[in-house]
Structure formats: structure tokens, C-alpha cells
Amino acid sequence: MSGVLVGVDSSTQSCKVLVVEAATGTILSTGVAPHPDATAVDPHVWVEALRRAWADAGVAERTDVLGVGVSAQQHGMVAVDRDGVPVHDALLWNDVRSADQAARMVQDLGVEGWMEAVNVLPVSSITLTKLAWLREHRPDAAARVHRVMLPHDWLVLHLSGAFATDRSDASGTGYFSAVTGAYRPELLERYFGAVPELPPVLGPGEAAGTLLPEWGGGRGRPVPVSAGAGDNAGAGLGLELEPGDVVVSVGTSGTVFSRSAAPVVDPSGVTAGFADATGDHLPLLCTLNAARVMTSTAQLLSVDLDRFTELARSGPSDAHGLTMLPYFDGERTPNFPDATGQLHGLTRASFTPENLARAAVLAVANSLADCLDVLRGIGAPVERILLIGGGAKSEALRSVLPDTFGMPVEVPRAQEYVALGAARQAAWAATGRPPRWGRRIESVLEPTGDPGAGEYRARYGRLRASLE
Ligand SMILES: Nc1ncnc2c1ncn2[C@@H]1O[C@H](COP(=O)(O)OP(=O)(O)O)[C@@H](O)[C@H]1O
Ligand SMILES: O=C(CO)[C@@H](O)[C@H](O)COP(=O)(O)O
Q1: Which reaction is this enzyme known to catalyze (predicted)?
Q2: What is the average per-residue pLDDT within 178-195?
Q3: CA of 170 relative to ligand 2 center, distance in Å
Q4: CA pair distance 238, 391, nearest whole angstrom
Q5: Is residue 125 lining ligand 2, measured as CB closer than 6 Å?
């Protein structure tokens, strides 16, 4: 297969574009453009960032593009009027303003009712809670809503003119069940008071449409734009995930997820029963605070990330009794939308830059370990951990994760797996089957038996429990 695929990851902090050789999966060029640091964003900003990253990756000059795929941050509410104009800024997955609506929705149907209806418990990240917020706080805007879509659907619409989505992203809305593969319009009626037009849910290898001329389409053979995916499902596709693999992704969010042929139901509702991008399921736990806990602490200490890593690795392994809860932006797992971060155990001896840096790294590791424990607790197979995301570059984090998780951690070669998965999906839509490009593991990190990791885990658990 000669030619290239274009894979897009429109994530919280930036838009990344990869040009990938179709035959091998080799990345030939990349482009990136930043997104604003906000939890409510005009969705046109994402189109402009995509244009810049697209140009940066040199896509427009190519005449050998076989297909385009888009993955993006999940859950964001893009609600538009009859003219396609957003009625409100898109509320992102990490915007917690709909926490009250979410709590009332859980009270209304009960945890069991929600797991039965959509296998997802509404927390403030879930799109339906954001629509309920819009109805309550911006009724005029809510009354003008004609269509509702997600960030990746919005970009597919701009690239191809097609209004479509896929199972993985639909499963994060709160009004679609990955178990039945159907929308639940009665939930929209109940909590939004109306059923806006929703994008048809395409199958994994289907194309939504073809690339428009303004993006370089229409110059020969039509270029398919695939159905797209939520970013975690995109990463699963990029990693060619198998049952037993567990992905730990450290980006703006921290996510822990696996692939399963059958739906996984967590009766507590803590694990979300999302779909993946292959036709399978993607049980997932997500935190609101991951890489940025480390970058904020580095900023406070006025050091760059290399120096931050040195600091975190040079003090006592349990941070000398200093414990941090990383809930800087509220939290979703555990569901503490109003929480703030905490620092406990300050003494003249413990309050040093080294201990603070280490406490921040261990806080991220422990919040991910909490998610992993939930996944283990519901019986999901955890045979192999794959560490990805921007924060996975942190040597300090890498060094504490195996002891905190109590098992080895595999680090795949550093790549943008979400965008790579989108490119793989594009190949699927273009050729009728997903290519096997393989994944290369760069290193396997083994637990060292460090008692400091265990001490920190116990202290962290006590501090977290004090918020319950
Ligand atoms: N060495 C590092 N240590 C800690 N954080 C890092 C490091 N390198 C990058 N990051 C952080 O990773 C984040 C970006 O990761 P990414 O997975 O692209 O996020 P997202 O997909 O949410 O936009 C940024 O907050 C960035 O500062
Ligand atoms: O809300 C979730 C998953 O449920 C997040 O994982 C978002 O999808 C944002 O991802 P990143 O920008 O952190 O990759």
C-alpha cells in the first residue's frame, strides 16, 4: 500500500497531526498547535489549531494522502443552532460546573439505573450533565440547540462536511449505551428537555465522508475521512491493544483502561463502560489531574522539568513524610468535583524542594494506582501495563510507578499514540481492514522493592479517606 495516512489528535492542550507511511506505520512528519488553557472553549479555536498543525505537518503539499482520521478529547459539549453556530462555548471534560446536575441525575435514577441505561455514571465530565447545566443556567441558548456533537465530530464535520460519530465517543455522552449500541433519547428528553439531532454512529472501519477541497481533497481520488474516535480509544487503536493490556496515560487527564470483548459493568459506577474503536469495549477510569500536577509544582519551584526530575529523585523515597493529594482542578476519580489539592506532613525537615517535587510525582502515581485498584477490583485482567502520554516522559514518574503499582510497567517507544490510532483507523476506512504496524516496547521498568513507595501509598490512602 503506497501513500500516507493523516492522523489527528485534538487533545486538551494541543492539536497534533501525524503523516504516517501507510505500508509501515512510520511517522514521516508531525505538526502541532496549542489550545487555550481553559475548560470552556469556542470550538472554532480547534479548527484553527488543526489548520496550523496541518500546515506544520506539510499535509497540504501532499498528493498521496489515502485517508484522514481524527481522535479528540472525549465528552466536550458542542451544541449548535440551525445555522451550525455554537450556542455556547464547548464545555470540556474537565469543566466541573455541572457537578450539581450530575449528582441530581445519580439521585434520580440511582447507580444501578445508570449502569443499566448506559453503563456510565454521570459525573460532571459526561456530556449529558453539561446539557442539563445549559438547560438550567442558559435556557435561551438551550432552546436554540439543534444539533449536539463531540469535539472529534466537530472536526470531522469541518474536514468533510459529514455529520457522524463513532461508538467510542458516543459512549462517553451519557445518552448512548455501548452495551446495546443505541442512543437513549429519553435521557436527553428527561434531563435536557428536548432531543437534538445526534450524529449517526458509524462502525469502526466506516468513512464519515471525504476530505473537502479546502483541506487538500478533491484533487484526484476522493480521500476518506474515517469515523474518528475519542482520544483514549484512539490510543488503544494506536497501541494495537489486546485483552490483558492496561494502558496508563498521563496527559492532562490520567486514564487507566483496558480492552474487553464483552461489556464490563462496575456495579459501583466508578469504571466507565465506554466502547473502543474496534467494536469491543473500553472500561476506563479517568482523573482530572495528571501531568499538570508535576508541571505546576515545577513552576512553583521555578525549575524546568529536567531539574524537577532531579529534585524528585534526590530526596528520601517517601518524601520524608510529606503527602500530596493532587486534586488541583477538583477530581473525578474519586468523584470529588469540589476538592482542592492538599499537602500534609509539613515540618521544617520535610518542607524542601526535593520532598515537594517527590510528593507531587508520588501523588500522580498514587491517583493512577487508585484507578488501577478499581480495575483490578472488578476483575479486569491486568497482565501488562503500557505507559503513554506527555507525562510519561517524566523519568521521576517512571521510576516510582512500578513500586506504586506493584508490577512492571512497559514503556512503548515515545509516539503520539492517539494520532497514530487515528491514522490506523483512516487506513481501515481507506482499505477495508486495519493494518498491523506492531508496537515497539522501549523499556520494561521493574519494581525495586522500595519500602518508601509502600509508606507513601498508605499515607496517601489515609489522606484521601479523610475527604470521604
Ligand atoms: N518530562 C515531563 N514531565 C512531566 N510532564 C511532562 C513532561 N513532558 C511533557 N509533560 C506534560 O505532558 C502534558 C502533555 O501531554 P499530552 O499527553 O500531550 O496531553 P493532552 O493529550 O492532555 O493534551 C503537558 O502538561 C506537558 O507539560
Ligand atoms: O475525559 C476523559 C476520558 O473520559 C479524558 O481522557 C479526555 O478524553 C481528555 O484527554 P487528554 O486531553 O488528557 O488526553
Answers
A1: D-xylulose + ATP = D-xylulose 5-phosphate + ADP + H(+)
A2: 98
A3: 14
A4: 18
A5: yes
Q: Does the beta carbon of 255 lie inside 6 Å of ligand 2?
A: yes
Query: pLDDT, tens digit, for every residue of 359-375?
Result: 999 999 999 999 999 99
Cα(193) to centroid of ligand 1, in Å? 39
What ipTM was reported for this prediction?
A: 0.98
Reported as a single tens digit per residue, the pLDDT across 140-150 is: 999 999 999 99
The CB of 74 under 6 Å from ligand 2? The reply is yes
Q: Ligand 1 pocket check: which of 12, 13, 125, 364 to mutate, most ligand atoms within 8 Å of Cβ?
A: 13
> Domains of the chain by range and CATH?
4-240 (3.30.420.40)
- d(CA 161, CA 163) in angstroms, rounded, equals 7
For the CA of 13, the nearest atom of ligand 2: 12
Residue nearest to atom 9 of ligand 1 (CA): 390
List active site positions.
231
Q: Which atom of ligand 2 is found nearest the CA of 255?
A: 6
Query: For residue 328, is pLDDT > 90?
Result: yes
Cell of 350: 520535610
Q: Which among 15, 305, 310, 368 is the best mutation to test ligand 1's pocket, defined by most ligand atoms within 8 Å of the CB? A: 305
Residues 224-240: tens digit of each pLDDT: 999 999 999 999 999 99
Encode pLDDT of 302-320 as tens digits: 999 999 999 999 999 999 9
